[in-house]
Amino acid sequence: MASQELIKKLEAVIENIPDFPIPGIQFKDITPIFLDPKLYEEVIEDLVKFSKGKVDAVCGIESRGYLFGIAIAVALEVPFILIRKKGKLPPPIISEKYDLEYGSAEIETREGQIKKGQRILIHDDLLATGGTTEAAAKLVEKQGAEVVQFSFLIGLKDLKGDEKLKKFNAEIYHTLEY
After folding, report:
1. Active-site positions?
2. Cα separations (Å) of 161 from 18, 58, 100, 101, 113?
3. 21, 34, 88, 108: which could form a disulfide with 93 (CB 3.0–4.6 Å)?
4. Are 123 and 152 in contact (CB under 8 A)?
């Protein structure tokens, strides 16, 4: 659990942008975190504490999952594996399709980068409905690895993304919840 001090610092800098990118959405702008290197370090320390000694690799979901995911992997001294939107990685790739509210999408990772039996942390900046993260977990499992943790800077409770992830029997962590 994040310290109350860290939570207060983050709540003071994360900006709520109403009606972006479409009407009715309350966008959480995390970019002010990157203006304060010490705050960024505190966030990484918090996320690393959750995973230390428990994972063999970190998978980050494009693109904002890379902002913290790479630093988490470096601090844990484990590999960082990119999970990207379809068509962004050279072959050979492994892919997973998933449904969105307005259609479907597909994510990919390079074949052979996730190793059979690895314990994987999947990281993204924000958990909303959980569809993309669920697809990422299926992508990991397709390669014989086990998702043991999910971490997010922000979890949006009302959208129930945690419910979609419970079937993976993995720990779920959010630094902040709204």
Report:
1. 64, 101
2. 21, 20, 13, 14, 27
3. 108
4. yes
Three-state secondary-structure class, residue 106: strand
- From first to last of its 178 residues, the chain has per-residue pLDDT tens of 899 999 999 999 999 999 999 998 899 999 999 999 999 999 999 999 999 999 999 999 999 999 999 999 999 999 999 999 999 999 999 999 998 777 899 999 999 999 999 999 999 999 999 999 999 999 999 999 999 999 999 999 999 999 999 999 999 999 999 9
What is the spatial distance between Cα 146 and Cα 178, in angstroms, rounded to a whole number? 28
